[in-house]
Amino acid sequence: MTIAPLIGAHMSISGGLHKAIDRAVDAGFNCLQIFTKSPSQWKAKPLTDEDAALFRSRWDESGLAPVTAHDSYLINLASPEEDKRQRSIRAFLDELDRCSRLGIPALVMHPGAHMGRGEEEGLKTLIASFQQIVPAAPDNVEILLENTAGMGSVLGASFEHLARVMDAVPDGQFGICLDTCHAFAAGYDLSTEEGYSTTIGCIEAAVGLDSVRVIHVNDSLKGCGSRLDRHAHPGQGEIGSEGFRCLMRDSRFASCPKILELPLGDDGELGRLNREFLLQSAKGEE
Q1: What is the average pLDDT across 19-40?
Q2: Does position 210 have pLDDT exceeding 50, yes or no?
Q3: Mean pLDDT estimate for the chain
Q4: How many whole angstroms separate alpha carbon 200 and alpha carbon 225?
Q5: CA–CA dist 135, 145 (Å, integer)
Q6: Nearest 5°: phi and psi at 155?
Q7: Torsional class of 265: left (φ above 0), alpha (ψ -120 to 50), beta (otherwise)
Q8: Which of 190, 209, 199 is nearest to 256 (CA)?
């Protein structure tokens, strides 16, 4: 029995968290990623029991596969400034709690930035933050470490960075969110069959393929190794069609939700076109 690929997008929560479910269904997606609050503000409207119940009810009715959340862009668990790091820890725990109450099983996060202190110090600080977070975290939400393009002082451009965190905090519930644009921009060439195979081998060696829970299917506007995080629609950037054919036909990731993080157009047309491109890629078609 052939299982339909899980293809979705990051959808707006404007008008209420439950509205993202409706938007995903209307666009023809079968999975979804959301923010549980505004990603650009520290403070958020409290999540009421009614809000959570409505979201879970609408989700149950929709038939969507597990929903994933993404944390706030303000959070930096690797910050060398202690007050900002502690504020980030509190905010991250709040996001985990919101996921738990909504029934969302995984929270994607960026590893943060060392702000000029160097990668080694940044990783030590990030690990210390997780050592503080994990004992207080809900046990029904997995933390998904997302690889990054490595712009500026941002950590996570290598999969070894993510492995360091997972190894240093063995009690943590960790998985990986693979972002194709970020990997390519960081120097992992996904644009050819050979490059794709090599990249997946690097992931397997560092964290194991079973750790990959979600994949952000973004193409890259910039070249391999550019360290610039600039998304393009799948097949229309520097990764190109071959890289996405390799990914979509890789049976090892058949059960991983593939999430678009791109503008879908006013009427959702770009979302439908991207979905069709990925479905055709899964079949090996041009």
Answers
A1: 95
A2: yes
A3: 95
A4: 16
A5: 18
A6: -85, 165
A7: left
A8: 209
pLDDT band at 224 (very low <50, low <70, confident <90, very high): very high
AA identity, residue 160: E
149-177 pLDDT per residue, tens: 999 999 999 999 999 999 999 999 999 99
Residue pLDDT, tens place only, 61-73: 999 988 999 999 9
**What is 7-282's CATH superfamily?**
Divalent-metal-dependent TIM barrel enzymes (3.20.20.150)
Contact indicator for 32, 67 with CB cutoff of 8 Å: yes
Return d(Cα 175, Cα 75) in angstroms, integer. Answer: 19
- Predicted confidence band at 188 (pLDDT cuts at 50, 70, 90)? very high
DSSP at 277? H
For residues 144-182, b (16+ Cβ closer than 10 Å) or e, as one string?
A: bbbbbbbbebbbbbbbebbbbbbeebeebbbbbbbbbbb
Nearest to 161 by CA among 123, 194, 216, 197: 123
Q: Long-range contacts for 151-154 (Cβ within 8 Å, ≥24 apart)?
A: 151/227, 151/228, 151/229, 152/113, 153/113, 153/114, 153/115, 153/116, 153/117, 153/122, 154/110, 154/111, 154/112, 154/113
Show the tokens assigned to 175: 């998985």
How confident is the model over 226-265, as pLDDT tens digits? 999 999 999 999 999 999 999 999 999 999 999 999 998 8
Which three-class secondary structure string do you get for 55-115?
HHHHHHHHCCCCEEEECCCCCCCCCCCHHHHHHHHHHHHHHHHHHHHHCCCEEEECCCECC
Mean pLDDT of all residues in 262-278: 89
> Do residues 244 and 237 lie in contact, with contact meaning Cβ atoms separated by under 8 Å?
no
